[in-house]
Each structure stands twice: as structure tokens, then as C-alpha cells.
Amino acid sequence: MNIKTQCCGLILLLVMGIIYSRKKTIRLSTSRVFICFFAITFLCILLDIASVFAIVRTDLFSETVKNIICKLYLISIVLTALWGLAYVCVEIYAVGKERRRVLRVAEAVAGIGSLAICLLPLYSTYDQEYETVYTHGPGAITTYVLALSMMLVSVVLIFINRSKMNRSRREAIQIWILLWILAAVIQFFVPQLLIVGNAAAIGIMVLYLKFENPESNIEHKTGFFNQSALYRYIREFNHNKQDFSLLYIDIGINVYDTLKGFIADYLDKIPNVTKFALTQDEIILLFRDKNYAEEVIKKLLKRFEEGWGKGLAFYLQPNWIYLENAALLREERDYFYLLHRIKSNELQYVNNHFVRVDEETVALMYKDREREHQLSDAMDANRVEVFYQPIYSVKEQRIVSAEALVRIRDEEGHIVYPSEFIDVAEKNNMILKLGRMVFEQICIFIKNHDMDELGLHCIDVNLSVIQCSYQSLAQEFIEIMEKYQVNPKYINLEITETASVNAKQRLLENMKRLMDYGVIFSLDDFGTGQSNLDYMLDMPVNIIKFDRELINAYFESSKAKYILEAVLQMIQGMNLQTISEGIETKEQLDMMEKLGVDYIQGYYFSKPFCEKDFLEYITSWK
Questions:
Q1: Residue 314 — φ and ψ, nearest 5°?
Q2: Element (H, E) at 249
Q3: Quick one: which of 86, 215, 301, 546 has the most CB atoms within 10 Å?
Q4: Mean pLDDT of the chain
Q5: Helix 227-239 vs helix 332-343: angle between axes, to the nearest 10 degrees?
Q6: Domain 4-212: CATH class, spelled out
Q7: How far apart are CA 481 and CA 490, in angstroms?
Q8: What is the maximum span of the chain, computed from C-alpha positions, in angstroms?
Q9: Which of 109-123, 332-346, 405-419, 422-436 has the lowest mean pLDDT?
Q10: What residues contact 243, with CB distance under 8 A and at least 6 apart?
Q11: Structural domain 217-357, CATH architecture
Q12: What's domain 368-619's superfamily in CATH?
């Protein structure tokens, strides 16, 4: 009997089934459909072998029994194709209703086809000389037509919805379909070769090894599901619009592995919770019931207060992030983006390092994401612009410089102000590219216009905190200035107090190289930090710029007035120049002039202008 290939396929599936049943599995739609798919394929091969026996052993099986077994085998082929289509649909269609709509049609066709197979005549042949066994006739032809049709429908659905599918999973399914179709076509034209069942088994093995192997979903140190499994789990919950809660626990990298083992064992015993480990230090608990989640969290917080290890001698303070309504997030990647965003902002960890994420937090995250995309699109489409706010010299009684201020335009051409995108640019390190673009535009402006003829001493350029800590800042700026043949004396770089705190040494190195090249520096936002006098002593700056808040406070508070006057006297004693920001009235201007401030900037003289309007404005001062 020619059942060698069927037996090989059966053994292959049997081994996979034993391994699969002994492993911890994640319960997803794809996994559940795969189990059914696996079972029907196993049954198909069993019936294939049984049909061969029924055809060959006429002494044991009557004609009626033989026909029943053979037709059951043919029906199982149709069902195998149906479950293959179901596996494809689970991957493509997120919402159950969409899947059910497609599968109802397929099930109806399979049901009618199976009835036709039962009613149509079927013939069997056994060639003793070549030991070949096969069935043929209208029943067999109907089987092939139905199965191949469902496979072709699967191929068409994959092609149309390829963007919705994971690429690797799509390729694995295509391999299974290709193997099955090739085997079916070969067996149709050469019926002696009974290879359909074995081809289906090999296809199942491909899917198993690439996606359905439980081992691929396990983080082995903790025994919990891994990040890949979490991604798939969240995706299914979101797509099916199911409510769930999520608790992120960051134990800390400095915790002994032994203690992490104690913690993992404790968490593993919590019932009705799906556990995931991003790393051995980062664990996520996923709850289907919010009330139950609150109960578990209370117990966990209390348990961590008791200590761990022998004698409960080790006390740990994890960072906790709790999403009570995790369904607020739209996509799987949003969860990891949100976790990263909160983790990078340590100020959010209050009340025992516990952060409760609410609807407002999620809305703010999406707003920042929109700003990030808006900024990225603007940079890619060259919609970044530099505006210039004039700076007035008290001594010369005219405009002598300007502060360069970045703006971007949205797709409709509307101006977007820095308050809408600078924070996002700094958080996502887009500020480096943005800063280069701005500095290059400023250098182009200086190259294209005679600064001396315009009466401009320099252009003030803001440096962000990230730029100040960037090791290659000086090199990049010098290269840009050399590219446009810009005299460095026309560049005044403004640093902030925060920058000098976070990366003081690197900032000083950049400042020294740029100052040696000929660039001047000023200290921006003076009056908003905590160690202003230290900055004046440590930073080799030429100009101190008073923040508008300090200026406003001067006119409203006697204490602020005393402080500003005392500080100004010290700055003048150090032979440093000063600029007052935010001057909006004649009274404020007169007072700053009386105090001896060197330069004035504010709406009293002008708002920031685009390049064209700025040129017209400074020309009017001549």
C-alpha cells in the first residue's frame, strides 16, 4: 500500500501535537484557529490512510463502508481548505463580524460541496502491480474544485489585504498554500501520488515553527509570555474592541536575579492574570476585569512594602504604570510609546512611584504624536522658516541685531509656533536636525545680505538643551559657516541654564571651540533657573539676557525689583552686556534705559518678522 507519505505526515503532526500540548500557550484567535486547523489536517491524513486500507482490504470493508470512508476523506480535504481560509481571515480581519461574514459564505459553500460529494459517484482504483491506490470520478473532481477554489480565495484575500498582515506570517501562509496547491494539482493529474496530506502537514509545520510554536512566545528567565506575545495579545484586544487593564512594573536593573526570581514566582501565582515580561526587570500584567485589577494592585503594593528574600530583608521600590482603561490606546505600538514617554519623565512618578494613566494623559500623548508627525513632515517638505525679532541698542538708538526664531508651516500653509513643537522635538531628538536646518537658513541670510550695510552686529541663535550636549555641535556649525563663508562674528549663540547643568563639560568644550573660531555667546532666560550667579561665573558668555518673567516681576514686586537691580549692578561690574526681553510699553523701556540695560527686545519695537518683512523693517530705521 502506498501510504508512506501519509504516515510521514501523520508522525510529523503527532510529534508537533505532543510538543504543543506540553507547552504554555497564549490564547489568541490565531492560536485557537490553528489548533482547529491542525486537528482537521491530522484527521484528513488519518482518513486518507483509512481510505487506502478500505480500498485495498476488500475482505475487511464492504463497498458501502469503503465509499463512506473515502467520501469522508474527500470532505476532510474541503474542511482543511476551509480552516486554512479561516486562519487567513483571522490574520486579515480584525473584527469578528467581518470574519464571520466571509466565513459564513465559505462555510455555506463547503457545506453544499460536502453534500455534493456525498451524493455524487466516486470510484476507487487499486493497482497491485505498482501498489498504487487512488479515487476518481465526479466526487473527487468536486473535492479538488472546492478545495482549490478556497485556496485561491485565500490567495486573493492575502493579496488584497497584504498591508494588514504581518509580512512573515503572510509569507508562511503563502508557503503552506503553495505546497497544498502544488500537491493537489500533481495528485489530480497523477492520482497515484497521494501527497496532499503530507503537503498539508509540511505547511502546518511551517506555520508552527514560525508563529505557533509556544516557545517563541516565552521569556525563559521568568516563564512569562514575551514582548512579541504581548504585542499580538494587545492587537487582538484592540481589534475586537475588548476592554482590559494593564499594569507595568519596572523592578529595576540593580535588583539581584534571586530576588527577581522570588518576585516572578509570586506574580505567577496570581490567578486570572496574563503575565508578560519585556525583560527580566520589566513585567506587564494584563487584566480583563478592572475591579479585579484594582484588588490585585492593592495587594501588590502592600506585598512590596513587606520586603523580599530570606527574612524579608530586601525592600524594593518598583516603578508602576497603570492603564485602567487600556482600550483608550488605538494601536499596539502606542502602548510601548506611552510607557517610554512616562518612564523618561521621572517627575510623573509620585505616590510610591505609581503612575495612573488617565484619558487626559493618553490624549496628551496623541497630541504630541501629531505634533511630532507635523514637525517631521515640515522638515521633510522644507516648510521650516526663520523669523527675526529686532533687538534695539540703547546706546546707538537703533536696531542692531535680531533673535532668530523658528516657525514651521502646516500642510495648509498656516504658521505653527515653537510652543507647539519644540518640546516634542527635544523629547524625540528631532531638535538636532531642526537646529541644523535653522542655523543653515541663518547662514544663508547672512551670506545673502550685507550685515554692515543693514547695520546688524549679529544674529542671535537659540541652542536647545539637546544641542548643547551634542558632542559634534561645534564641528557641524563650523562646517555650515564655512560652507556659506559666513564671518563667525555675526553669530551669537544663546545657551540656557538648563543646558549647562545637564552637560556642562561637553557644552564648555563646544563653546571653547566655537569662541576660538570667532562666535560669541550669551546666556538666555536669565532669571528662570536656580543657580544664575554660578552660570555667570562659569560660562564664558558676553551677554546676559533677562527673561521676560523677571522683567514683568520687576514692575510688579518690590522684592523682584531689588533683586534685578542688585544683579544688574553685579553684571555691569563684570563688564558683561545685558538684554531685556518682553518690553512692551514706553514705561518699561524708559525704566530699562535708566537701569543701564544695553539692549531691548520686545513687542514695543516689533513682533518677530519673516525675512522679507524684517528687511523692510530694519531698512526703515536708517
A1: -105, 120
A2: strand 245-250
A3: 546
A4: 86
A5: 120
A6: mainly alpha
A7: 10
A8: 121
A9: 332-346
A10: 288, 290, 325, 326, 327
A11: 2-Layer Sandwich (3.30)
A12: EAL domain (3.20.20.450)
